[in-house]
Amino acid sequence: MSNIVAIVGRPNVGKSTFFNRLIKRREAIVDAVSGVTRDRHYGKSDWNGVEFSLIDTGGYVKGSDDVFEAEIDKQVELAIDEADAIIFMVDVESGVTGMDEDVATLLRKVKKPVFLVVNKVDNAKRAEDAVEFYSLGLGDYFTIASINGSGTGDLLDALVEALPEKEHVEEDELPRFAVVGRPNAGKSSFINALIGEDRYIVTDIAGTTRDSIDTKYNRFGFEFNLVDTAGIRRKSKVKDDLEFYSVMRSVRAIEHCDVCLLVMDATRGFDGQVQNIFWLAERNRKGIVILVNKWDLVEKDNKSTNQYEKIIRKEIEPFTDVPIVFISVLNKQRIFKAIETAVEVYNNRTKKIKTSVLNEVLLPIIEHNQPPAYKGKFVKIKYIMQLPTPQPQFAFFCNLPQYVREPYKRFLENKLREHFDFKGVPVSVYMRKK
Q: In b/e form, how buried is each residue of 268-304, taking b as 16+ CB within 10 angstroms?
């Protein structure tokens, strides 16, 4: 499992901007108003081949009467406790503040690598001003400008060198299917119905399942590890330490599985939190099966299934090639169909296509639908191969890879899906110089 790095500091020092730069996408909200980051954001990054998970915390304000700020303080302390290393960010424009000193006092007690990072240092004068941060008693500091990335290379070099080496755990060769979703969607009941025994406690209280638990499943010719996870709730509702760790275990379960069985409550719909879990699985390039549970409780006619499915596919565009199974755990309707579908998705994810077959099928299609000219340049794709990775990734070798735009890459992905069946699996397309 990858190391965890927590980014902490008072409000308005640029933590979210730095976080977004490291994970190479804009997920955390960036705003000049104090306290916009009310909760933790999670992301994955890597530097020089070393992968790590990031937690961007809310701004730390010790002893505040504001109920939000008091909750943020608790989250910062939890993130520090969970992290393997801490980045403490301060702002050269405002200099050392009382809140910075409060955070420093907290961090001086931590027996983990702590990196003091002075942000917004984009000229020589500000580099001189940064000297005052020695007064925080945390030793040497790094100067960066998170808005443009200046100085982040030296910081990340030091960070990955200081991260502890994780013990290598022997991986079970069996496929891992993680059952994920919001609390109280029916995940534990689904597993109980499959294995035919009440192994897990099932109640109507959200958050009963605190851990991620593995069950070896071997029936009807299928053998794999089934992982039941704690329900993933909106982070603003993570109130206690135990639930925080449960959420982290759920996130980790997604990171380290092969296929996610996303259980949703048909009576609640494909809401924002279910979508967040879906995209977390997609970003980790996992196989996905959407299970619409409690379908027996929905008033329906002969068009209901198609209409419901159409709504879900609209929300998951452009990755719409995902199987959707309508189930009722209570009535044991289509629960084994759900497992059959997950096995099919796993087989799609591990599928290997011969290079000769790839080129024989796709090169004629490309010849008739060549990449559009860009800046007067014409791209010629000469050769295709599947990369030796755990999930489907394909390299298209051409003369000018930098001129192939995203719409054409999606066209190539769609053709791969059309001819080789990658239903339920994210497919990556890379253009390489021939």
A: eebeebbeebbebbbbbbbbbbbbbbbbeeeeeeeee
